[in-house]
Structure formats: structure tokens, C-alpha cells
Amino acid sequence: MRNRRIVIGVTGGIAAYKAPLVVRRLVAAGADVDVVLTRGGARFVGAATFEGLTGRAVRSEVWDAVEEETHVALARHADVVAVYPATAHTMARAASGLADDLLTTTLLATTAPVVMAPAMHTEMWEHPATRANAAVLRERGVALVGPAEGALMGGDVGAGRAVEPDAFVAAVVAALGQDRETPVGGVPDLEVVADPDEQPWAGRRVVVTAGGTREPIDPVRWLGNRSTGRMGIAIAAAAARRGADVDLVIAGSELPTPPGVTRVEVTTASEMHEQVLARADADVVVKAAAVADFRPADVAQRKLKKADGTPTLSLVPNPDILADLGRRRAEGGGGPTVLVGFAAETDDPVANGRDKLARKQADLLVVNDLTATGAGFGHDTNEVVILAADGSRTDVALTSKDEVADRLLDVVDVRLAAADPAPSREPAPGR
To answer: Which end of the chain, N or C, is surrounded by fewer C-beta atoms within 10 Å?
Structure first.
């Protein structure tokens, strides 16, 4: 794909968070990629992410860089124009021949093949207007890839999910084989499925913490929390499916270990601190465990009894694993390429999460609002906001914890690609 120029339009759908993966794969294949980011798309993914991946300025407005090139220059130079995701609104404007922003102007002016990934709620995809617009686009030669069935925004499930990045990239590659001089067309609808055996994180080392630490009071009692470890286990499983070597440092959970994951059992925050820092020079560390902030200063050697009177507990701070990882990395002492923390909040979660992200010197912070229905401890579902140190955010509506894990690792993947696009294929030490 060297010297092939591809324009990627990113519009305002939740699947926009996966668009950087599409861009990353095309750039890695040697293509020159220009991103056109609509105003809606910019609400989901920032321009800096795409500029970091492509090394090229992101375009958003018809009036950008007018002195350098015209508003149709992108269309004239493109070998393929691709839209991921393609919202119902974008498809309607394209079918109507509107040119009310830079993306639709590019679509109207191009003679190159056009590939779109429809993404919307099921009701919108099945509406007669959308069906008619899809038919018009197909008649003009636009390749519609998908949509797939699966989890949608807001916890819904059905047809309307954007196809996965690898499937869309395969469609773009197929479109490059078309005759560029044929107006728009000749590209059929494609049903492309990514190779299930592909493991893009082969050679990556990932450390995930999970569960809740337990700080002993006496031989039978401890200070703890309600964490079951489900979220951390889901993240470990998702990383293993991508081919990574995964260590799961887990406390206080009876849940089983996912296939391909090495389990490291600990009990206290101090034990977790020791095990995580010993593995800190990994590609990714995800701190999903609920770690006790304090522990009893003195642990009773025998069971405390009522007859002895009401005990008084004196608490001392536990080591701060996330802060120590961030500090050590900032001071040049080594650490993960991407450091991810979690924050369970009950008040002003995003503001408190931003503060924690900065204090802990992490790259990403996943914020749980414990007051949200179906989110947090003890649920199979979760609803999170993924905050990034660059100021961007990714909102994940209520869905399964497995889906949250995959969406988080997609966000991590973008940062891994920017920092280290070619992972070693050597196994981790001791593997």
C-alpha cells in the first residue's frame, strides 16, 4: 500500500473510538492517510490522536488551509475515500449529494472508490429512509461494509454495529484494486471477517490487577471491599485473546482464571505492590483492582473477642501502586509503555477522575460511577468513562464487562501503536 493515499472520514458515532485502529493499520501497511474529522466525530476522538498516528494534519472544515489547496484537493488525490463510522445522517447527506462540510464535499468530488461502514441503532438502520439511502449509495458503487450485529450504545443489542477495524481495512484494501478512473464505483458490498486466529498483541507483555485486597485485623477478620474481580479478569482475558503474555495479579476473588493467563495470587496491598512492581517493565499495566488505601497498624495474633471490649483500630496508609508506577516511569526508572488506572467514584466522577489521572501520572484512567444502575462491583455489566492524559475521553455506555474490556484495550492499542508500533515476538522472560 505504499504511496497509496487514503482519505478516512470519521463521523459522530460511538464507533468513532475504533477509527484510530483503522488508521493505524493502514499507516502500518504503508499508506498515506488523511483524516477528515467531522464535528460530531471530534466529540468522540480528538484530532491529536489521528495526527500522532499519521504524522499529518487532521482536516475538519472546508475553510482549513485554503491558501495551500482547494476544498476538493483531498478528493482529487485520494485512491480510496473511506468513512468509519458512517452514521445514518452521513449516509443521508451522501445519498442526497449534499456538500455541507469537508467530508461530504470530498465524497461528492471524488472519482475514487468509496467504502463506508454503516453504524447506528437498529431502528435507524431498518428505517425505510436509511434503507433507501443505502440502496442509492450501492447503486452508485459505494461499498457498504456491514453493519454487523452486536452490542450497541446504551446497552442495546442488534443490527447496526460497525464492523471491526480489520474487516473494514480488508474492504479498503479490496477497493484499492478497482479502476480509479471509474466514477466512484465498481466496488461490491463486502462481507469481510477478520481472521479469528490473528493475535495483534503477540509479543506484548500485559499485567492486570483484579479483585479486592484484604488487610488483616486478626486471624479471622480483615478490612476489605466489595470487588469481585470480574472487570480485571475480563481485561486479562481480552488481552490474552489478542495474543499477549498476561499476568493477572489478583486478590480476594474465587472467579476462575481465563485461558492463556498466568494467575498470581496475593492478599494484601503490600503483596500486590511487590508483585506488580516486579513486573512493571511491561507493555501495558492495567490497575483494575480495588486496593485498600489503609491497613491496621497492628495485627492481633489471636482472635479479638467481645469479652475483651471494643477494639480500637489504628490505620496506616498502604503503598500506592498506581502512583509509584507513574512516579518511577516519570523519573526514568522504567515502567510500562501504557499505564492504566481505575477509579470508583460516587461524586463528580469525571472531575475526580481527571484529578486522579494527573496525580498518578497515568496515561488512561477508567472511571466507574458507583451510583449508576448496573455498574461497578458485583455486576456483569459496567458503564465507564475512559479519560486520557491528552485530554480526550471515551464514553462506554452500559454493556457487558467483556465489551468494556475490549473497548478499553482498543484505546490502549492506539497508544501502543504510537509509542511502539512493532512489538517483539519474543516470549516474556520465564515463558
So the answer is: C
Count of the separate structural domains present in the chain: 2
Instruction: Looking at the structure, tell me whether residues 11 and 148 fall in a common domain.
Output: yes
Q: How confident is the model at residue 421 (pLDDT cuts 50, 70, 90)?
A: low
pLDDT in the model for residue 375: 76
Residue 207 grid cell: 499485567
Judge if 107 and 164 occupy the same domain: yes
Do 400 and 312 share a structural domain? yes
Residue position matching grid coordinates 455506555 = 397
Q: Say if residue 319 is preceded by a cis peptide, omega within 30 of 0.
A: no
Give the SS3 label for residue 306: helix
Q: What 3-state DSSP class applies to 318?
A: coil
Alpha-carbon span 431 to 428, nearest angstrom: 6
264 within some domain: yes
Active site residues: 225
Between 16-25, 232-241, 343-352, 373-382, the lowest mean confidence (pLDDT) is in 373-382
Residues 176, 85: Cα–Cα separation, whole Å:
19
Burial label for 386, CB within 10 Å (0-12, 13-18, 19+), is buried
Domain that holds residue 369: 205-419
What is the residue-wise DSSP string for 110-176? --S-EEEEE---HHHHHSHHHHHHHHHHHHTTPEEB-PEEEE-GGG-EEEEEPPPHHHHHHHHHHHT
CATH no. for residue 37?
Answer: 3.40.50.1950
Nine cell digits for residue 129: 429512509
Sheet with strand 393-400: strands edge to edge: 261-266, 245-251, 205-211, 284-287, 338-345, 364-369, 381-388, 393-400
